[in-house]
Recover the amino acids of this structure.
């Protein structure tokens, strides 16, 4: 069906089926996943087990059952709401799955849905569909456009944050290896007379094989849940000897944390990954902040500030026995109180009232880490941040799953590439699937392959008259 | 004194590869046309390498031919060596490349212009384009002749305010010792057209007898010769050879010692040069770890002793050029006939053009070729043909011919230029196409002959042949699916090719899909096989062997075409669509895309902007309905 208005033709066609977490951030114990589109029922019927047949469920009914994975294991007990078009938000078939609000569970369920053929909903896409299908009236068009852009900005922010992590780096690294290989193949094809610069099929296949192995490692990390490391970033900062290390050691001891040493210029920095009531946390250990002329120490302190600014939550450990001295005062004043939890340590030895007065209305916890007092309270305070507006728990798990989907597809393409060139023996066919693999990873990093390949050709190869 | 010199439908400014195609197409489509050249002896000149084709470029020549253009035929008539490149690298990248007798090519093309009905060829410099109410009304020459016309096509190549640079010497000039065209630029600027300054270069020509070929590697042509044109039946000629040699550390030493005398490094050249066409000094500086660079010696023609030295493009002073050439194996006693030079020239910013190659803001004015910021004879020819066709379509009140990215490299070329623009001379490359398995040189006729026929450049006889060929291929592909070979028939062939034998019957299609098996091999075991020719054989083999890949690419195309089908009004006021980000608004306003697909390829327009745009369109649509 096509309409022609003012030279604008709008084609209507069958849209894809999309899915996303629809619970607003911070809604607590329950998460809701929404799937909209022609295949919504078919997709859910494949992963949802209950007494009865999915197609027999009446529209707008809630059914209790289980979500099962490929091996038939239960992922979660859920409530499923089936809604038949057109009496739905998007005027398409919709299924809503209500599951436990644990990001790991939400991720697993989303992964299954994407595997069955749904695509991750773009920011604002449900609303866009609601509008396009006539569910939202014309007067709200402007508002709909605003929703799309503000949702996009939020999700971009979350995606960017994720890409700063190690997974992001390895995705970028793998992608640029593919681009390098592709440009080498392109030079070989586009400048056949320049044999000095050519790559042989065998060499290209070997390189593709190496890339494939790297992607496999990435996939494995996702599957074992390690990827959820990139959860909420919490910086632990404070002056030297205030008790940061004690706090961190307590967390490591109590929370089955994974500790990673990241080599630095001044000293190794610790990253502590653990799950706080199902939500992934990354604690960042930092160097003690104080006045110094030591060049090396200064670099470490710079790094502490950087970590503080990049993190979504700050735990500032202060020493009650020091009182409100100049350093403590300036530390408090320089820090954004809206995202800071002040942990007043050593309160078994001093009251720390002057510090508390200076903090004012912000969140503080009195502790004595050495006496096992306060660690839980600080962590509770961190958890309370999770449910505050502004921190997108759900968007993190969605981004994770979206990334996983693209990585899976990239792996498929690269396997196809190797397989095809093995059976056909053509460099060109290798490069076609490689290009698709680069594009999938590019969807994560926000880069497109075409111009990058050409850029790389002229940077790395010496061809032309 | 200005005088009235006549009236034509279409005036073509410049008779290079773009201009010739444009003029022939316009005249053949029934328009009266005049084509201007600065010098009657420089029509269809090849001021750089004496060759046509190569990867992606050979594809363009085939496309030109399928649409009814001339380049392929003229090349077939004048080539002196031909090779099919990339044969071992995959069917989509087989590329035809020919060495051309440059003078013979010029004569051939000039003759075709001269004998074309409705077309006048004139030697004159066009200095001004005349507009009335923003529309083209005519052109004026340096001698005061004023020609009335409805459309004008700028095909000015590298002539606009051309400047030649050889080391520390530089002077106004066009390519190959021609005069530059110094006045037209000002007329364009006055009309609000924005120009860019680009740079390119060409290596020296040396005397054939001064080289020692025993020290070089000979590169012979292929036999039999595969023609460019689908109309050329066969080419039987004595082929000339090319020769391969290398630079060495001594060459690089000479260059390094004299770098300070290169205008590229001293900053005397401000034009933007192409990355894919680096000068030898550029190569030596940027790839300093490379012990040698390849140099190809190519013949300029049969009746000349001039040889082209590919790989030695340079803007170093003449004395340094001579010194560095003499360090190369086989060139020790070289006698240079023409020195290498760099040339700077004005071209238009192609973002001002519609996909039809007409200026958005200047109805009737078209531009094609190097004046659009491209590079290469083939790129120019393809654009010239499209501009010529579309000027004629405009005169005839018909829809312009716009090729999709999924249909032709020509479509990719023009879409890239008018949507993304370019900041260096744009060269066609296979990696620029998303669907290159579909855009092969062997199927250019299958892809485009229908369009050429519809436009009116393909005559009935050729069209009939084409339809027959298409039918033949289709029938044979169907037959291969059904034809079953007995194990006794096929096993010897399979064994010979290192393939597993079969125990029961197998279809011809399944056999052909096996690695290493060619369509030609089946001939020995298949009595029902119809007699085709090289071109049908190739098409059948590719379509059968790569069916799975082709299907995958077709699916991609279908997804892509969804947004191409969503047309945008060029008068849309993006500034008023609040949901768009500011950068997107500005870019869309500047480029005025004709479809949502085109909009999505503009750098700075994000997927969420496209969603906003879709909502806006829906809002408009409903607003009008309600």
């Amino acid at each position: 069906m096509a309409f022609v208005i003012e030279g604008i033709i709008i084609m209507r066609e069958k849209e894809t089926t999309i899915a996303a977490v629809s619970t607003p951030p911070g809604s607590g114990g329950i998460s809701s996943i929404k799937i909209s589109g022609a295949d919504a029922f078919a997709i859910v019927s494949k992963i949802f087990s209950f007494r009865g047949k999915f197609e027999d469920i009446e529209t707008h009914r809630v059914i209790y059952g289980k979500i099962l994975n490929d091996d038939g294991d239960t992922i979660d007990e859920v409530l499923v709401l089936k809604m038949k078009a057109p009496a739905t938000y998007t005027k398409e078939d919709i299924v809503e799955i209500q599951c436990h609000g644990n990001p790991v569970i939400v991720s697993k369920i989303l992964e299954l849905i994407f595997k069955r053929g749904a695509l991750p909903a773009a920011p604002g896409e449900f609303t866009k569909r609601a509008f396009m299908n006539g569910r939202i009236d014309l007067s709200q068009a402007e508002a709909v456009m605003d929703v799309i852009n503000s949702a996009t900005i939020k999700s971009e922010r979350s995606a960017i944050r994720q890409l700063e992590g190690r997974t992001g780096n390895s995705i970028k690294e793998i992608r640029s290896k593919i681009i390098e290989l592709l440009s080498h193949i392109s030079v070989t094809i586009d400048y056949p007379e320049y044999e000095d610069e050519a790559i042989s099929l065998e060499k290209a296949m070997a390189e593709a094989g190496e890339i494939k192995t790297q992607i496999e490692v990435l996939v494995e990390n996702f599957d074992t849940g390690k990827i959820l490391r990139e959860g909420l970033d919490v910086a632990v900062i404070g002056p030297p000897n205030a008790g940061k290390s004690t706090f961190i050691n307590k967390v490591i001891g109590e929370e089955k944390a994974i500790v990673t040493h990241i080599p630095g210029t001044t000293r190794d920095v610790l990253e502590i990954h653990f799950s706080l009531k199902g939500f992934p946390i990354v604690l960042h250990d930092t160097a003690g902040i104080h006045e110094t002329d030591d060049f090396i120490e200064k670099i470490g302190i710079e790094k502490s500030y950087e970590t503080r600014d990049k993190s979504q939550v700050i735990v500032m450990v202060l020493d009650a026995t020091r009182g409100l001295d100049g350093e403590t005062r300036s530390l408090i004043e320089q820090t954004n109180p809206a995202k800071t939890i002040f942990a007043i340590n050593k309160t078994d030895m001093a009251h720390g009232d002057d510090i508390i007065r200076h903090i004012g209305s912000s969140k503080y916890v009195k502790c004595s880490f050495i006496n096992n007092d306060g660690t839980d309270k600080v962590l509770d305070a961190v958890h309370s941040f999770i449910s505050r507006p502004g921190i997108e728990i759900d968007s993190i798990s969605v981004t994770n799953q979206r990334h996983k989907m693209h990585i899976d597809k990239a792996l498929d393409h690269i396997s196809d590439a190797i397989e095809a060139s093995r059976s056909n023996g053509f460099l060109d066919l290798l490069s076609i699937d490689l290009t698709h693999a680069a594009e999938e990873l590019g969807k994560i990093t926000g880069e497109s392959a075409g111009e990058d390949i050409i850029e790389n050709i002229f940077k790395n190869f010496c061809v032309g008259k | 004194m200005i005088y009235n010199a006549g009236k034509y439908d279409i005036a073509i400014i410049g008779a290079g590869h773009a201009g010739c195609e444009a003029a022939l197409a316009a005249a053949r489509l029934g328009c009266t046309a005049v084509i201007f050249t600065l010098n009657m002896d420089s029509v269809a000149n090849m001021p750089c390498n004496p060759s046509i084709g190569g990867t992606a470029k050979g594809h363009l020549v085939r496309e030109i031919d399928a649409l009814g253009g001339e380049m392929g035929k003229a090349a077939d008539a004048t080539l002196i060596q031909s090779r099919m490149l990339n044969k071992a690298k995959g069917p989509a990248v087989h590329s035809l490349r020919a060495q051309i007798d440059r003078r013979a090519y010029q004569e051939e093309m000039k003759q075709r212009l001269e004998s074309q009905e409705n077309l006048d060829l004139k030697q004159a410099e066009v200095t001004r384009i005349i507009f009335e109410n923003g529309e083209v009304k005519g052109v004026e020459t340096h001698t005061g002749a004023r020609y009335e016309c409805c459309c004008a096509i700028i095909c000015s190549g590298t002539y606009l305010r051309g400047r030649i640079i050889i080391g520390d010497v530089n002077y106004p000039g066009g390519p190959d010792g021609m005069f530059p065209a110094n006045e037209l630029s000002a007329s364009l600027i006055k009309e609000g057209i924005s120009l860019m300054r680009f740079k390119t270069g060409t290596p020296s020509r040396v005397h054939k007898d001064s080289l020692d070929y025993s020290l070089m590697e000979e590169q012979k042509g292929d036999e039999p010769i595969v023609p460019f044109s689908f109309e050329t039946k066969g080419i039987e000629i004595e082929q000339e050879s090319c020769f391969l040699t290398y630079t060495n550390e001594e060459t690089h030493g000479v260059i390094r010692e004299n770098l300070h005398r290169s205008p590229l490094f001293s900053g005397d050249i401000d034009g933007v040069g192409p990355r894919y066409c680096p000068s030898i000094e550029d190569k030596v500086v940027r790839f300093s770890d490379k012990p040698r660079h390849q140099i190809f010696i190519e013949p300029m023609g049969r009746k000349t002793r001039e040889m082209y030295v590919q790989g030695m493009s340079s803007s170093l002073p003449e004395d340094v050029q001579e010194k560095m050439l003499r360090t190369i194996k086989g060139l020790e006693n070289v006698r240079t006939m023409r020195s290498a030079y760099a040339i700077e020239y004005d071209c238009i910013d192609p973002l001002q053009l519609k996909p039809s190659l007409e200026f958005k803001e200047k109805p009737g004015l078209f531009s094609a070729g190097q004046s659009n910021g491209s590079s290469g004879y083939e790129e120019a020819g393809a654009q010239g043909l499209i501009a010529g066709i579309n000027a004629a379509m405009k005169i005839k009140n018909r829809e312009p011919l716009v090729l999709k990215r999924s249909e032709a490299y020509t479509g990719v070329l023009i879409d890239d230029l008018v949507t993304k623009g370019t900041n260096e001379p744009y060269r066609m490359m296979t990696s620029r196409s998303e669907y290159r398995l579909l855009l092969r040189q062997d199927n250019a006729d299958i892809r485009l002959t229908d369009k050429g026929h519809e436009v009116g450049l393909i005559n009935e006889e050729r069209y009939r042949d084409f339809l027959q060929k298409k039918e033949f291929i289709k029938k044979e592909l169907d037959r291969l699916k059904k034809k079953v070979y007995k194990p006794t028939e096929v096993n010897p062939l399979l064994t010979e090719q290192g393939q597993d034998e079969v125990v029961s019957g197998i279809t011809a299609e399944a056999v052909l899909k096996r690695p290493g098996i060619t369509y030609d091999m089946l001939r020995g075991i298949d009595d029902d096989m119809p007699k085709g020719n090289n071109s049908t054989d190739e098409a059948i083999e590719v379509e059968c062997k790569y069916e799975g890949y082709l299907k995958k690419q077709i699916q991609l195309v279908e997804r892509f075409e969804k947004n191409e089908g969503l047309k945008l009004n060029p008068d849309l006021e993006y500034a008023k669509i609040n949901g768009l980000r500011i950068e997107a608004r500005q870019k869309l306003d500047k480029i005025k895309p004709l479809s949502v697909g085109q909009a999505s390829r503009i750098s700075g327009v994000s997927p969420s902007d496209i969603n906003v745009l879709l909502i806006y369109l829906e809002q408009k649509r409903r607003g009008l309905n309600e």
